[in-house]
Design a protein that fits this description.
The protein is an alpha+beta fold and about 150 residues long. Helix content is about 15%, strand content about 35%. The chain contains 3 helices and 9 strands, in the order αββαββββββαβ. A hairpin with a 5-residue loop joins β1 (about 20-25) and β2. The longest helix has 14 residues, at about 1-15. The protein is globular, with a radius of gyration of 15 Å.
């Protein structure tokens, strides 16, 4: 019985919390626009879970972490089997830093390098493929069902 309960708890933690979804538009410095389908991580439980345990992420999908305030942010890849690009976004909605192709399962801290309000995680290598660099702007409109 204890083994069953442990397996059930592990399955629930891998499944994770519910995330609202919505479109997000990124404009590159060169003016190209890319629309992504993103999940919103807005509360502590969602931000803590993030993309952990996910084995697939579409080319035009991602997760937006909204911290509610502008501050230094530290991320990691614990329990995350995918390589990700982390786009650190300031209150002005400009990409201030990109951590390219992060290492799966790493517990090494990935720092924002300064105060940010959001972090967008997309599939590793997508930022370069789409021409997204520091200075790109992000149109952020919370999904209707979001409490934001």
């Amino acid at each position: 019985m204890a083994l069953f309960l442990f397996a059930l708890a592990a399955s629930a933690s891998a499944e994770g919390p519910h995330f609202d979804r919505g479109p997000l538009t990124i404009r590159t410095v060169g003016g190209a626009e890319h629309i992504l389908d993103v999940e919103w991580a807005t509360n502590p439980e969602q931000r803590e879970h993030g993309l952990m345990f996910r084995e697939d992420l579409g080319e035009d999908q991602g997760m937006l972490f909204d911290f509610g305030v502008t501050r230094d942010v530290m991320m990691w890849m614990k329990n995350t089997p995918l390589s990700l690009d982390m786009l650190f976004i300031g209150e002005d909605r400009r990409v201030s830093r990109i951590a390219h192709r992060t290492t799966p399962f790493s517990e090494t801290i990935v720092s924002s390098g300064g105060p940010v309000h959001y972090v967008l995680e997309i599939r590793g290598g997508r930022a370069a493929a789409l021409g997204i660099t520091e200075g790109a702007t992000v149109e952020i409109v919370p999904p209707r069902s979001s409490s934001q």
